[in-house]
Write a structure and sequence with these properties.
Serine Threonine Protein Phosphatase 5, Tetratricopeptide repeat, two-stranded antiparallel ribbon
């Protein structure tokens, strides 16, 4: 029964992402905020509503609060890549790229670039794989990829 409820929750959150994407295209930010707040009440531990609210706040020009919601989404689920993408996109002085409403908007990373690592409590985090490369003087440097 719990598995069925979990699938239903995921479906509802996917529908929320799709409806917010359509409403943002129409500029209906107030309707988006209303739906997102209802989803936050229904799914307090889901990262999707915080990520979506961050997008809306960024579109409305409230950068500081948007970043707080992107960080909240990332804290709720460190494997939720749209939040990480939005943090990277909007966390610079000159934002480039587009926002990620859901996983379909995240550009694919090379398979050797990032991996999901789980700690002893079963909490997953998306991390870059790193290795040490040595220059001609034998000095080690951390190299991504």
């Amino acid at each position: 029964m719990k598995q069925t409820n979990n699938i239903k929750n995921i479906s509802e959150l996917d529908q929320l992402c799709a409806s917010v994407r359509a409403l943002v295209a129409d500029g209906a930010y107030d309707t988006c905020i209303e739906r997102i707040c209802q989803a936050m009440q229904r799914y307090p531990h889901a990262p999707q509503p915080h990520n979506l609210l961050g997008i809306i706040l960024e579109k409305k020009g409230d950068h500081l609060t948007a970043m707080k919601h992107f960080r909240a989404a990332w804290a709720l689920d460190p494997t939720y890549l749209p939040a990480n993408h939005n943090l990277s996109t909007y966390g610079t002085f000159f934002s480039t790229g587009s926002c990620a409403f859901d996983e379909s908007d995240v550009p694919p990373a090379p398979p050797s670039n990032m991996e999901i690592v789980y700690d002893e409590r079963g909490i997953g985090r998306a991390v870059y794989k790193t290795r040490v490369g040595y220059d001609e003087h034998g000095i080690g440097h951390v190299v991504r990829g």
